[in-house]
Amino acid sequence: MTTHHNRTIVILMVLAIVVVTVVLLILSLTRTKGGGDGTDTGLFGDTSATRSYTPPTTSPMNPFGTVGTSSTLEAPSGPAPFFRLVTPKPVIGATIVGKDTGGVAEDVRYVERDTGMVWDTTLAYLNTPEVVSQRTIQRIGEVAWAGNGAAMLARFTDRADGQVVYGFAGRFAVSTSSDPASGAIVRSPTLEGAMLPINVITAALSPDGSTLFYIVPTEAGSVGYVEPVGGGTRTEVWTSPLRSVTALWGIAPDIYVYTKPTSHGNGFLWDVDPTRRTSSILLGEQRGLSVRPAPGGAKILYSFYDAEGILTLRVLTVATGEVTYLPMPTHTEKCAWGPSARYVYCAIPKRTLPDDFLERWYQGAYRTDDTVWRFDTDTGASDQLIDPAKATARQLDIVDPVIGPTESYLVFRGRTDDSLWALELPRE
What is the pTM of this model? Predict the structure, then answer.
């Protein structure tokens, strides 16, 4: 009887130890998952503070440092992580602005999707964004930048059904004044510009932001004009029976116009000379053709479906006609040139793209999970810079990539939720 009683006591003690151990383990895991106080702060930590998610620095997908997010709710401080979510608010257009502050400094300038307000925040350090323009533009759908962020082109609709499309082109004018209390110089930027004709098909700013080219529909097709930004005399430089086209600036003063990409037809690229009011074909008979000129327009990155139905990347040197092959399949809207026109940075989908990718992607019915690569168009070398899904556990369908004037940063937008991300680029 005593032996049986003792055995029962031993079993109960062992069970008690096991229960206590399990409880302590669960509490430990709960604290680790949250912000250290037992609360779950989400995938990226507490975005109202300065915490950041830090993967192991020895990870092959994290060769440059830590990963994290910056906040617009409080004023964080310190060096920015090498890869981060710039703002939790949806963004529709961003660029990188070089600043003259006694050294090399760059800001990211972006437009809030919901308000149209323009903000600046530094890339190298965490801080609170500064408002650049409080001008409200509702239902904004597209933004382009030029002149180191000094000129802005926006397209928006007047109502939710998007039937009427308006355009606005303007430049930021900065006035200075003295603060009466501190005597400090206060810079007050304002956005000044003019509306474009209704239902503009496409528009492009010259690299310095001084000149605007836009195409409007006509009964016979379309017509293109150039005019100074902010208003002035417009000049007709292009006519076509086509309406489904996109414009980009080429080798100054020339403008590139190409047919909007489709998986079901061949595309063409024209070089429009606004001085002579003539045009010539640079590329043609390419299914799904899409282009992205390098700064200055001397090289053109283009994608198209090859004979096997694979979306292929090429680089055309305009002066010589030489074509260079790039080894990864993607769409040019996922690519950006560096300022020297040597490196191309592209988001490369992990999965093989379907034959009807373009239509499904434009309609929002297909999403990609991308990695970021750099291609050297001189040597043919290619390097993977980051896999966002491994760095943040978040798949990104990358669009609107932009490289800064010093080629130190890449910013891009996540297409699914219009999130804005910044990646510090490796040094040579």
Answer: 0.79
